[in-house]
Amino acid sequence: MKLIFLVLGLILTLGLASAHHRNRHSHGNYDNNNYNNYHNGGEIEVQEVAVESQIVVEDYSYHPYQCGPYNRCKLGEVCQRIGDHCQCLPIPSYKDICLSVKQIGVWQDGQRGGKTYSQWDITIENHSNKNIREIFIGTDYTFRLRDNSLNSLWNMVMLPKGILALPSVQNSINAHASYTFGFIIDGPQSPNLHILSVLFQ
């Protein structure tokens, strides 16, 4: 009788030990899976952030205006649109429109702490046989309006990202005609201006 109880006790002990081992093994796999899932998820998240950052960088390296439904010009090119036809043309060889730059004067303003300012006239010369309906001119850090005020800019309006455009009262520039706008900026140096996009009538 004692032998029977001894055998039953041994079987019960072995069963509990086996179950405990399986339980530990199962929890060990669960933890490893969670660890792997966490790290795999972390890698995916990092990749998504990297791609998103790359998209932002690429966006800044491209021309700000779409040229046609599928094309975007590169920096250093003019997006020329004539009706439904659009093409990207390199600025150095673009002769249909020119920007003529003239310095009107340079002075130091005692009422503004002796800061140096300069006044400029920019003439948009249309050498083409078509009327200009829209033109967008890009600027950069060299274009700092006096007092950071639009009162220091006339005959043009400023769009986001410092882009200059014709005002609503000036709906076109005729073929072989010109249009002049002006501004007052910080410093004596000529600002960098470049034609981004032109729409001909």
UniProtKB/TrEMBL annotation:
**In this protein, which residues make up the domain named Carbohydrate binding?**
99-186
Can the keyword Nucleus be found in this entry's annotation? no
Query: Which Gene Ontology MF annotations are present?
Result: carbohydrate binding; extracellular matrix structural constituent
Give me the Gene Ontology terms describing cellular component: extracellular matrix
Which residues, if any, are the signal sequence? 1-19
Keyword Signal attributed:
yes
Q: Which GO terms describe its biological process?
A: extracellular matrix organization
Which keywords annotate this record? Signal
Tell me the SMART domains matching this sequence: CBM49 (SM01063)
Kindly provide the name given to this protein in its UniProt entry: Carbohydrate binding domain-containing protein
